[in-house]
Description:
mainly alpha
Amino acid sequence: MGAALALLGLASSSLIAVVASACIFGVGYMTGSAVLAVWTAELVPGRAGAAFTACLVVGAVSSVAAPAVAGAVIPGVGLGALLVLTAAVSGLCGVALLLHGSSGGAAVRSTGP
């Protein structure tokens, strides 16, 4: 996701870069959705449906709030810079998840039933 946003932010004047960004984003979005469904089922096996629904609700609220925040920030920093900044945040979150996964996720498992 971060790569798609960075590509769009850095090369939005190129049609090839925009199409490549859309393809990368589509693959990332669909893969992320599938992983989210599996992850919630592993995290809360007895209430996997409710956990996944909660994730979808958070995503829906974010989909409404993010454009409003972006619209307020774009005049000050520009669309390209905002996309690159968002890509950096996405990349950092990905690294944090990888590091959490390599630690075995002990903090999550210790709070289970």
